[in-house]
Amino acid sequence: MWSWAVFVPHPPIIIPEVGRGEEKAAAKTLEGMQRICSELEDERPESLVVLTPHHVMGKGLSIICGESIAGDMGMFRAKECKLQAEGDFELATELAGHVKKEGLPVTMSTGKRVEMDHASFVPLYYLSKAWKSLPKLVLANPLGLSYEQSYFLGRVLRRLELKGKKAGIVFSGDLSHRLIPGAPAGYHPRAKEFDALVVKAFETSSADELLSLSEDQIESAGECGLRSALAFLGIVEGEPLRLFSYEGPFGVGYCTAIWKPAKGRGDIN
User: Fold this and answer.
1) Which intervals hold domain Extradiol ring-cleavage dioxygenase class III enzyme subunit B (predicted)?
2) Do residues 128 and 48 touch, judged by C-beta distance below 8 A?
3) Dihedral sign from CA coordinates of 60, 149, 54, 1
């Protein structure tokens, strides 16, 4: 059984060692991250899957695992800010086999030591504060999937048999990068529409409108988190989820949300 799933942003600036005070401009996001950590403080899983759009990308879903998975914020002026966890090869192998059996393409990337990308590091930084140590990790990049396949991936993940293992899943993704003049990907007047649709999708637990977006609408947003959002909605399968926050203080949309499976569902493994 998946114990829970969360959707979170990954801007390094919300890490205090990186932001050095600037993170306070993202107060709603910080509050959302803290609420997630408070919810999960006593629910540390044995293993954790992180869906990240910024790691190694291959054909289909790229699954990344190593004996150790470690990283720091050296690229963001905070090399002293470090994380390390053990990889879960068993879960990575089971995940790859299950996803492939369901008809989605999969690429495996393994090594003795895997570097943690910032889209994994940021949410894990907060969770490590709540848990004091990280569980075993598996990273996965969905960028090799189409949007429809990403939603299907979530449904596939829902059906993964975890054989009694307690596991959680983090869907990491920022929304539009074009919300205001001077935003990282430039400004686009329709960018806010994209973010509003993602927020609505989370409020209604429905991916229908997101799956109907045109390429122009997606391009206008300059997003990196649509596939993560669709996979999150796929694993939820229409059950209620809780949206904790949305804001775009630096021209990039940040959203925090959590889902826990409804008790009594017969199809939960």
Assistant:
1) 5-254
2) no
3) negative
Return the half-sphere exposure (C-beta side, CA atoms, 13 A cut-off) of residue 28: 13
pLDDT band for 265, please (50, 70, 90 cuts). low
Cβ-based neighbours of 26, under 8 Å, separated by 6 or more: 11, 13, 14, 247, 249, 250, 254
Q: Measured between alpha carbons, how far is 14 from 69 in angstroms, rounded to an integer? A: 21
**Fold observed for domain 2-259:** Protocatechuate 4,5-dioxygenase; Chain B (3.40.830)
Burial of 125 (0-12, 13-18, 19+ CB in 10 A): buried
Q: What is residue 214's predicted lDDT score, i.e. its pLDDT?
A: 97
In whole angstroms, what is the distance from residue 15 CA to residue 126 CA?
8
pLDDT at 267 over 50: no
Beta-strand (E) ranges in the chain? Answer: 2-8, 47-51, 60-73, 78-86, 106-115, 136-144, 167-172, 242-247, 254-259
Residue 268 has pLDDT above 50, yes or no: no
What tokens were used for 211? Answer: 């799956």
